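USER:
I wish I could look at a protein chain and see how it folds. I am handing you a single protein, as its sequence and its fold in token form. As I understand it, each token names a local backbone shape. I hope you can help me see how the letters and the tokens relate. The protein I mean follows directly.
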Amino acid sequence: MELSTILQPECTTCATPGSKKKVLELISDLVAAQYPTLSSQEIFESLVAREKMGSTGIGNGIAIPHGRLTTIDHPIGVFIKCEEPIAFDAIDKQPVDLLFALLVPADQCQQHLSTLSSMAERLSDKLTLKQLRKTNDSSELYQVITT
């Protein structure tokens, strides 16, 4: 999977959202700004619905919030580095500072799982994590995560 096919530079940012709810809102707003046919509320509700099933905080300061939308025909990614870690109910009870959000078409379950797996693998690389956490520039963040 080429991450650059689903993640745009405009959907990669360093931010200080402050809370889990605020970061999910930020994800929704970033996507809606790039895809005007999508409603930020619809995106937010999809992400929250998934979080209600269990936190997508996978540990080591990483979360992979995701949702399914009937209104898209291709996966859309968002990558956020939180300047201050936020509580995210992660499995290791640690705050989260790196989030990769994924929105997929509702009918593409296998691609959804494959993309989530690839991103989890990418975020398990210690060198990549070190580089991501070191940068405070959105364009550099995009370069690190997509190469």
Remarks:
- The chain is about 40% helix and 25% strand.
